[in-house]
């Protein structure tokens, strides 16, 4: 197959894919994430439950399935058209993204509730203030002497008979582990204020560590106590039948009962739950009816019979005539008594037959009764869930964020295109075409894979614009180089693409690997970024390399690019003569000073961690009442008990002239809703201008842990890849440079007091992958030049390599920084945070690849015997100094002979066209040099490497030369400073370049 | 946070080894390891083998790494010199 045909086929493929992409773009609707559409995001941590002592993958998946059903059938009204997502994330998290859901509190209640229904024999399990059962074995006549027991029994779960939370937990904490069919496995921990109020500070939690983490500031407050309730005892909250609003456990008005946790029936024994109305009660209030499974029927009948028979044996001490004592059957849902049904022993001497099912009555609204029926229908979650993060974005703010992201993207693309056109002219036009094709492919791919567009995803997209342009720059610079070296334009294009590809491949593989690690380990928001970065990099490899090559190849002999000037290769280009390695000490010093300042800043100021790490609730809201001050807002918050919140006035044009950011301890969604309501009543909150984010302490820890793991994993993978593709000594400077970049970014964040968020962490991890781009470009050229310059010192090789690629590095860095700057300026706050870290990291990465990684490599490699001896020879020849660039014999270049491999080429090769430099090299190889006096001859005297030198070059000259190692054999080491003039070479009979 | 401050300080000081003759054991990379390990170990010793947390880190925490980094680099340097001399003194 000829190149022409190959190009034609690739162009055909590109056009076909483009047409397909356009069709996909118009056919499928974009799926916007919460941050762009508005809605609620909930992150839960899975915990063991009584039914599932060990949280297995299968149990987590079952929980996700149940939660999906709850979203589809309950939250979205059973339409099943919800764009909500529930998925596993990280090691033990479940993330629910619920776009368009306005009520966070209801979403939390429906999704995270275990929906564990438990039926208790009330009297036999109810415990007195001393922690012992009232009935104490249900011996007849006992209650006759115990009016308190009778009173508690007849209170039937009403708030009037309950006790305050602290008293209940203290009572429960007196008991050890109890046998029985418990609803909970293991102990539970509570944290109370030791003062007279006995305020609940945190809990209940499964472990002491979790309890402390949940306390304010992550430490146990000084005047507090921890109470531990062992397995087998349960504290159930009483329900106030007259109250329309749920009462929080920490509310002083809440009342509790302590029970022996011996469950008679679980929710799994229930079937067909329905919301109905109780026609017999006044006003026909809503209730929930259900039937029992076969097992449930039997168990229900058995337990109600037992209860009834006991009632017949007991006499009510408060009534006259020795009436049997009315007995009860309690139903609890997730530690709350929802109903305590009465069983009259006289009416039901044989208990209740389970055939007819049962009903739960209580202070239901139709909505809450429907929700409960649906929860019971879908079943209990196999694991317990703990809400660790919750955010709510209003649709208006989401739309504005999307608008800002799009503007940043368009501006970023625009300036990259402008830069390419100005710098590379016709090549720039082709690169632009490649970028446009890339944009279509990428957008279509995201739609085809049903990916959700999020703000971090947009950041990834904008960054990949830079990556795609970088690939073109690397190739175009190589093409220009080849054309300037004397190749024809078609040959320059072919060779340029071939030689540039290895550097692009290495750089992109590292970026893809980092994106993959990020995707696997990161939290939900960052995952979107990692996904787009990975996909974008793969697509850009295709468009920036294959597509543009085919376009250029197809027009290789056209008039449009018939002149080198059309490709920006008209002049010889700038030849850098700067001594990069010699000047490295100044750049090292600069970095040292920056890091020193950074270290002091980290010590003195520390890093300002955002809510993702600190935990707490952040509310961002606008108010309509002009002139509202921070103190006005504080006074409203103080009335709800949040007077210690940090309140900051914002200047955000999206929110309007009067906007505030409120940061406080972690609030549950219902509390956030209360704050919203109060602010609205007092100052007026415009529709869609209220958003909140709540993060629990475990979430921040998870984010930090996953970031550390991701950084270590990335570093290992990058090192391994560099060691494999280059050599292991190249990997160490890369790691040092990466460390330099990360620490400088951290130092800048500390100095400027910028907030570190999950976006910053994602940006730091991206820097790991991306800052290698420039390093790989430089190292790739060093690798190429090492065999070409067999007599040069390593510093000279690096200097030469740097001078050849510095323009390219500057261009690629600029090309990435341009869209990142657009992101910073136009991307709004979230994207701005992200862009800032990227800006610092990418700039530092470019700097470190040139001024840190390369000098470290030079210093290290020059300790190798072969380079030590070269350096010594050069110092001997040049009065103790090694010239910055290889000149004379040291500058002699050879064309390396790589191992011959099968070409694997599918197409017919281009006609051989040699550049002048290759022609010269060929002449030398054929030994037909027309200027023999310029060159020395190689000597074959084997030598040993010198030991490390300790004396000056002058002193060295005085000492006889030491034997050297065989390392020097190929280096012309024995060449005399004043070579004897060679005899004119006799013409020899040759065939195929070899003497016969 | 203390560990971050020590590492940064160690790395910062390492940058100035470029002005010294390249006689470190393991070269510039040896000096790098010496600076980092020295900074961290000294920091740990000063703080009773515990790493200061976010709220316990202050300006002095970063400064605590300076002697450690210098000692680490000095040890690596003198070991390099010793090995160099040993190599010169060896009959081969």
Radius of gyration of chain A: 38 Å
Termini separation of chain A comes to: 37 Å
Average of pLDDT of chain B:
90
Number of contiguous helices of chain A: 27
Alpha-beta content class of chain B: mainly alpha
How much helix is in the residues of chain A?
A: 40-55%
Unreliably modeled segments of chain A: 136-142, 898-912, 928-981, 985-996
Strand arrangement within the widest β-sheet of chain A reads 3-4-2-17-23-20-22-21
Global outline of chain A: elongated
Overall structural class of chain A, as computed from helix and strand content, comes to alpha+beta
Radius of gyration of chain B: 15 Å
Poorly predicted residue ranges of chain B: none
- The tally of strands of chain A reads 26
Mean pLDDT of chain A: 75
Helix and strand succession of chain B?
A: HHHH
What is the percentage of strand-forming residues of chain A?
5-15%
Beta-strand percentage range of chain B: under 5%
Which sheet architecture does the biggest sheet of chain B show? Answer: none
Main beta sheet of chain A:
8 strands, antiparallel
Helix proportion of residues of chain B, in percent? 55-70%
Q: What distance separates the N and C termini of chain B?
A: 50 Å
What does this entry look like structurally?
- The complex is a heterodimer of chains A (996) and B (92).
- Chain A is α+β, with helices and mostly antiparallel strands and 996 residues long.
- The longest helix of chain A has 54 residues, at 395-448.
- Chain A is elongated.
- The two termini of chain A are 37 Å apart.
- Helices cover 50% and strands 14% of the residues of chain A.
- Chain B has helices spanning 2-14, 27-46, 59-63, 65-89.
- Helices cover 68% and strands 0% of the residues of chain B.
- In chain B, helix 1 (2-14) packs antiparallel against helix 2 and helix 1 packs across helix 4 (65-89).
- The A-B interface holds A 584-585, 588-589, 591-596, 598-600, 602-604, 606-607, 609, 732, 736, 739-740, 743, 746-747, 855-856, 859-860, 862-863, 947-948, 950 and B 1, 4-5, 7-9, 11-16, 18-19, 22-23, 27-29, 32, 54, 57-63, 65, 84, 87-88.
């Amino acid at each position: 197959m000829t190149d022409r045909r190959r190009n034609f086929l690739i162009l055909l493929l590109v056009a076909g894919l483009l047409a397909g992409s356009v069709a996909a773009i118009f056919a499928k609707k974009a799926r916007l994430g919460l941050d762009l559409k508005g809605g609620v995001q909930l992150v839960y941590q899975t915990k063991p439950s009584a039914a599932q002592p060990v949280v297995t993958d299968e149990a987590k998946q079952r929980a996700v399935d149940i939660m999906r059903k709850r979203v589809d059938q309950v939250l979205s009204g059973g339409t099943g058209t919800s764009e909500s997502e529930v998925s596993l994330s990280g090691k033990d998290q479940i993330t629910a993204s619920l776009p368009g859901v306005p009520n966070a509190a209801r979403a939390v209640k429906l999704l995270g509730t275990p929906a564990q229904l438990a039926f208790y024999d009330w009297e036999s399990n109810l415990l007195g203030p001393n922690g012992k059962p009232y009935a104490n074995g249900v011996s007849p006549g006992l209650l006759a002497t115990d009016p308190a027991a009778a009173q508690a029994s007849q209170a039937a779960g009403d708030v009037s008979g309950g006790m305050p939370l602290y008293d209940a937990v203290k009572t429960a904490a007196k008991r050890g582990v109890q046998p029985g069919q418990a609803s909970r496995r293991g102990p539970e921990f509570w944290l109370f204020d030791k003062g007279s109020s006995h305020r609940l500070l945190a809990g209940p939690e499964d472990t002491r560590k979790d309890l402390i983490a949940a306390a304010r500031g992550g430490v146990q407050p000084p005047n507090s106590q921890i109470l531990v309730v062992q397995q087998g005892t349960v504290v159930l909250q009483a329900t106030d039948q007259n109250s329309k609003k749920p009462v929080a456990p920490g509310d002083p008005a809440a009342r509790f009962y302590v029970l022996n946790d011996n469950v008679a029936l679980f929710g799994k024994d229930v079937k067909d739950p329905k919301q109905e109305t109780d026609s017999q009660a006044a006003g026909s209030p809503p209730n929930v009816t259900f039937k029992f499974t076969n097992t449930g029927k039997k168990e229900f009948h058995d337990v109600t019979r037992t209860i009834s028979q006991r009632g017949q044996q007991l006499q009510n001490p408060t009534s006259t005539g020795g009436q049997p004592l009315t007995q009860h059957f309690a139903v609890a849902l997730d530690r709350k008594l929802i109903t305590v049904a009465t069983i009259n022993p006289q009416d039901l001497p044989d208990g209740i037959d389970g055939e007819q099912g049962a009903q739960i009555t209580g202070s239901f609204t139709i909505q809450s009764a429907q929700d409960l029926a649906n929860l019971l229908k879908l079943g209990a979650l196999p694991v317990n869930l703990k809400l660790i993060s919750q955010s709510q974005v209003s649709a208006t703010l989401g739309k504005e964020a999307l608008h800002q992201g799009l503007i940043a993207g368009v501006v970023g693309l625009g300036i990259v295109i402008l830069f390419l056109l100005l710098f590379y002219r016709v090549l720039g036009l082709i690169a632009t075409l490649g970028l446009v094709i890339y944009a279509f492919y990428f957008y279509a791919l995201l739609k085809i894979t049903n990916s959700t567009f999020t703000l971090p995803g947009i950041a990834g997209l904008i960054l990949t614009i830079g990556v795609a342009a970088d690939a073109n720059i690397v190739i175009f610079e190589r093409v220009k180089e080849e054309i300037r070296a004397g190749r024809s334009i078609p040959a320059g294009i072919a060779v340029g693409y071939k030689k540039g590809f290895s550097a692009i491949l290495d750089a992109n593989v590292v970026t893809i690997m980092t994106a993959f690690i990020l995707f696997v380990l990161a939290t939900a928001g960052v995952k979107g970024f990692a996904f787009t970065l990975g996909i974008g990099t793969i697509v850009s490899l295709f468009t920036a390399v294959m597509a543009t090559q085919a376009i250029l190849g197809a027009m290789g002999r056209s008039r449009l690019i018939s002149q080198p000037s059309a490709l920006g290769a008209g002049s010889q280009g700038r030849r850098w003569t700067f001594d990069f390695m010699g000047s490295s000490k100044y750049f090292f010093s600069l970095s040292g000073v920056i890091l020193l300042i950074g270290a002091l800043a980290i010590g003195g100021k520390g890093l300002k961690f955002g809510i993702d790490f600190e935990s707490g609730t952040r509310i961002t809201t606008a108010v309509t009442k002009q002139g509202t001050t921070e103190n006005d807002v504080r006074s409203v918050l103080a009335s709800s008990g949040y007077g210690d919140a940090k309140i900051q006035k914002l200047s955000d044009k999206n929110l309007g002239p009067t906007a505030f950011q409120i940061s406080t301890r972690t609030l549950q969604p219902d509390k956030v809703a209360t704050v919203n309501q109060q602010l609205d009543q007092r100052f007026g909150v415009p529709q869609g201008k209220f958003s909140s984010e709540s993060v629990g302490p475990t979430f921040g820890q998870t984010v930090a842990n996953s970031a550390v793991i991701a950084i270590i994993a990335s570093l290992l993978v990058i090192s391994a890849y560099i060691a494999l593709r280059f050599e292991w000594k190249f990997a160490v400077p890369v790691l040092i440079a990466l460390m330099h970049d990360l620490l400088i970014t951290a130092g800048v964040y500390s100095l400027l007091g910028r907030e570190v968020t999950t976006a910053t962490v994602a940006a730091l991890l991206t820097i790991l992958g991306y800052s290698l781009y420039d390093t790989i470009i430089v190292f790739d050229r060093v690798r190429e030049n090492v065999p070409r310059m067999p007599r040069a010192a390593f510093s000279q090789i690096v200097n030469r390599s740097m001078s050849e690629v510095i323009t390219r590095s500057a261009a690629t860095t600029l090309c990435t920084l341009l869209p990142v700057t657009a992101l910073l300026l136009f991307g709004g706050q979230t994207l701005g945070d992200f862009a800032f870290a990227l800006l610092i990291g990418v700039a530092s990465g470019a700097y470190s690849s040139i001024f840190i990684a390369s000098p470290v490599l030079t210093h290290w490699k020059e300790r190798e015997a072969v380079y030590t001896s070269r350096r010594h020879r050069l110092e001997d020849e040049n009065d103790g100094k090694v010239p910055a660039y290889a000149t004379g014999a040291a500058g002699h270049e050879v064309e390396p002979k790589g191992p011959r491999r099968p070409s694997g080429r599918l197409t017919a090769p281009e006609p051989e066209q040699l550049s002048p430099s290759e022609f010269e090299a060929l002449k030398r190889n054929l030994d037909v040099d027309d200027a023999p006096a310029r060159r020395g001859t190689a000597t074959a005297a084997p030598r040993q490497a010198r030991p490390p030198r300790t004396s000056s070059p002058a002193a060295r000259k005085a000492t006889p030369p030491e034997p050297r190692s065989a390392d020097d054999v190929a280096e012309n080491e024995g060449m005399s400073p004043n070579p004897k003039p060679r005899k004119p070479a006799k013409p020899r009979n040759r065939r195929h370049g070899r003497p016969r | 946070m203390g560990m971050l401050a020590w590492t940064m300080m160690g790395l910062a000081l390492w940058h100035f080894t470029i002005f010294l003759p390249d006689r470190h054991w393991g070269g510039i990379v040896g000096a790098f390891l010496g600076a980092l390990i020295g900074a961290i170990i000294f920091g740990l010793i000063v703080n009773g083998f515990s790493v200061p947390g976010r709220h316990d880190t202050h300006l002095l925490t970063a400064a605590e790494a300076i002697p450690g980094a210098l000692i680490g680099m000095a040890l690596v340097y003198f070991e390099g010199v010793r090995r160099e001399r040993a190599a010169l003194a060896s009959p081969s």
